[in-house]
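Lab notes, practical 5.
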Amino acid sequence: MAGHRLRDYPYWRDQAPLRDIGEGGPLPENADVVVVGAGYSGLSVALHLARAGRDVVVIDQDRPGEHASTQNFGAVGRTIRHKFTAVAEEVGLPTAVRIFQEAQGWLDYTADFVEREQIECGFTRNGRLYGAHTPEAYEAMARDMEIHQKHMPVDTVMIPRAEQHKALCSEDFFGAQYLRDVGLLHPGRYHAGLLDRALAAGARVFGKCRADGFEHASDGHVVTTPRGAIRSKELVLCTNAATGSHHPLLRYFRRRMIPIHSWTLVTEPVDDATIRAAMPNGAMQLDTTLLYTGIRAIDQDKRILLTAQHLFDHPDAESAARACLAQATERMPALANVRADYCWVGTFALTFDWLPHIGKDPKTGVHYQVGMVGTGVPAAGYLGWKLANRILGKPEGETVFADRPYPTRPFYNGNPRWILPYMREYYRWRDNGAWRRALAKHGRQPAPSPAA
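Output from the prediction step:
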């Protein structure tokens, strides 16, 4: 990359720049609802409450959308981090079916919302592939999908190894799972659309306004900020991975999340042949390792986006870009000659039960939508709509994700930085070792004939 200036900020922000909104002047003294956090979740809550006639104020410690909402991959799916069978074993079959039905619901909600609101964010249902890194990983996906389909049909098929060349760019996989109805979008433009509609509905948004303190009483809440205090009947916390630790309320939620960072790279424009070689059927691709590599096309700009290097710390974007490309090209030779144009780090929040959480804290009366488990693009808007309806007392607010037990771990303070390098090395050793052994035992597939 010598002689090339790598851009170390999200690609999405060049098409949808972050906006300086409400950064000057004092806050209003009162509102019906104060929402802390102006990402997808907070803006969705604010939009639906404002359209219902509530006086809503949204505050954010940075510019609206500065964190995960404009740092992500842009995937719009219906996946839960654990398999259907694992969730059913943990919570019971009826609850598991409800969980996966709502995951389908947030995909369909997002597709309908984008169309209804006419948000120009390039949403398309181009599918998603999970390449199996071992034969055992393929068989586990196939067994789980058979049970999943029995209790809740979904538009997913298994692709055996002999046929994977039609969809995957590498011979090093052992078949794939193909989710045909999921898609992707431009996360920056999606956030900008949400922000525009929340403002048009009457929500007031204030950037660069950190919530420093919280007081709670039977008649409402008081939020203190560097620009004054604001009193509200309802308080909603939508800070996700950006949740701080400077107040007991925030520390309570931070102890229930595990912030995970990963790097994302966008290439310089490439030709159609390179995109077809990398993604033969046009679907985004991931693999079944925990420290996975993901790729998707950015069609309007003829670029390839890849996400990689989960849990890795790099001193700068240049070294991160080299590592991302090395990780990707190890299994995807079609990417061997691409050049990085953008590279940035983003953070998302896992939970200890691997499920998203919304609800109302019984001690303080604070509503929360915190811990999105990497499902944030479609789930955040959907659950924000659910949370708004809960506040309004409407039946549409019912959701299996509300007011569930929100676990943490003894002695965990919300900062996993000391343990992440050990986790990373263990996962890398385990997954790469299994992959190497599988390739050594089963070998590469023969190249398909021209007629295949």
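Observations recorded by the TA: The chain has two domains: 1-120+182-259+349-417, 128-180+269-338+418-452. The chain has eleven helices and 18 strands.
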